[in-house]
Amino acid sequence: MDDKKGVMMSLIFEAAEPTTIPVQDTNSVFPVNRIFCIGKNYADHVREMGSDPSDTPPCIFMKPTDCLVVGNGDLPYPSATEDLHYEGELVVALSRGGKDLDRAAVEEAIFGYAAGLDMTRRDVQADLKERRLPWDMAKSFDGCAVVSAIRPKSDAGNPHATNLKLSVNGTVRQDDTTAKMIWPVVDALVHLSTLIELKPGDLLFTGTPEGVGQVVRGDRMDLAIADVAELSVTLT
Predict the structure, then answer these.
(1) What is the helix (H) or strand (E) element at residue 46, kind and residue range?
(2) Which of 60, 91, 198, 221 could form a disulfide with 116 if both were Cys (CB 3.0 to 4.6 A apart)?
(3) Rounded to two decimals, what is the model's pTM?
């Protein structure tokens, strides 16, 4: 590459390959840019975490792109936790971006949807919350986000009001509808575009319903979002 003076520059080490996600029933892949997440987006989940949904509006945080695990298979148990939790979520994938978008522009920006797991080091989160510190390391670690192949929105039915079901070792733990989101998909993206310029390749994990809980090595998590995608991973 060239600098501003036209002098050839070289990388001091090889750049990482981009993270990509398969697109269902095609030979195409979706290149991931950034991962945004919404916390506290289902009232019942807010209550089960000990908060009042009327006093705790949804919050937005991020996960590193290189932490993403794509597709079914094994998921290594992370370091520095003895209380790892699953959170099953609808994921939105954007193929367009922009800032201060209106609802029509957001609809145009959405490429498709996927099933995702927001993995959380709950003991780390509790400690950081108690000390009133940012809880990035509770949400951002190797393998902290898992995602299925993406279904284009034209084939995804009505993801704004569809069933989300997560089982652990065959026992249903989460079984709810995405219609219960406090901030539905479009509203969330409109708001996010006022905070930051959205870019093609951005993902949004849209929050989890009630029923989150601990998983340990050997547990299998099966997530199904009707008309969108299925995902199955086993902790190792």
Answers:
(1) helix 43-48
(2) 91
(3) 0.94
